[in-house]
Amino acid sequence: MKTILVPLEESDVLPSILETALIVGQRFNSYIEGLYEQPGLTEVVVAGEGLGVTPPDLVENFQQQEKERAVRAHELFEAFMKEKGVPLDGGGAPQDLATAGWVEEEAPGRDLVGNRGRLFDLIVVGRPVRNSATPTMSLLEAALFETGRPILIAPPKPPGQLGKNIMISWNGSYETPQCISFGMPMLQSAEKVTVLQVEEGMVPGPTAADATIHLRRNGVAAEALNVDAGRRTAGEAVLEEAEKLGADMLIKGAYTRSRIRQMIFGGITSHILDAAEMPVLMCH
């Protein structure tokens, strides 16, 4: 995980996003790149009646506000890195310490993170918070579905540590093994790894015990844990078991069922995106 992208939005979760990225960056001597992700005008403006043409003065005002937000995001990113002693080198050759840089690019809507994110080993985003406009689900989903890269979702509060005690939410689907492959550097350096199988959340496929054998062959001292959800949903069971074990990071394949079905009927991914208080590594 030598390259990390951090798309920034103004939000209360921003300190946690930066801290989460820094913990990983310092562990792997990564280059951490910040950028301001500008929302498309359609995300913040609701068209009126008739032809739905946005008034020019509204467009101009929006563009000016976005320029100001981009400047503030840049300043916050560089101030954080300087405070933490991370050199701002613009992303040259690999070094024996974490470095950081900022990129100024423009693209409509979420195209920027979807395109640029494909060049990075990891993308760090914030978990959407209920009753808050940011971080946005659209940014998270652009990083998840448009890049082909893993995303690390920062919780609302900055984590004290990350990746020492990892839980893998195993359900037998192909998304989770893919996420394990992306997360192997973290898994191999972890002190404890638990592969959790919630019986009510399984699909046809290998078991947690099978996954544990695979991990051990890759130098990961993993243990399998099978539980019944009982009166809990499968998502509640995953987070409660992670909390019981003191896990500081969760690995979970995203959306085994369709996003629409999860939004309507619920699912493990939806619950984790709504309630996780630890960093979550996801991929799809």
Record the SSE blueprint.
Blueprint: E1 3-8, H1 14-28, E2 31-36, H2 41-44, H3 56-83, E3 99-102, H4 111-116, E4 122-126, H5 137-146, E5 151-154, E6 165-170, H6 175-182, H7 184-189, E7 192-198, H8 208-217, E8 222-227, H9 234-244, E9 249-253, H10 259-265, H11 268-275, E10 280-283
Parallel strand pairs: 1-2, 1-4, 2-3, 4-5, 6-7, 6-9, 7-8, 9-10
Antiparallel strand pairs: 5-10
Task: List the keywords.
284 residues, alpha/beta, Rossmann fold, 2 domains, ten-stranded mixed beta sheet, 11 helices, 19% strand, globular
Tell me the domain tally.
2
CATH superfamily of the largest domain: HUPs
Order of helices and strands: EHEHHEHEHEEHHEHEHEHHE
Q: Strands of the biggest beta sheet: in what spatial order?
A: 3-2-1-4-5-10-9-6-7-8
Query: Percent of residues in helical segments?
Result: 25-40%
Write the CATH fold name of the largest domain.
Answer: Rossmann fold
Main beta-sheet annotation: 10 strands, mixed
Helix/strand-derived class?
alpha/beta
Please name the CATH architecture of the largest domain. 3-Layer(aba) Sandwich
Calculate the mean pLDDT score and round it: 87
Overall CATH class of the largest domain: Alpha Beta
Quote the distance from N terminus to C terminus: 18 Å
Multimeric state: single chain
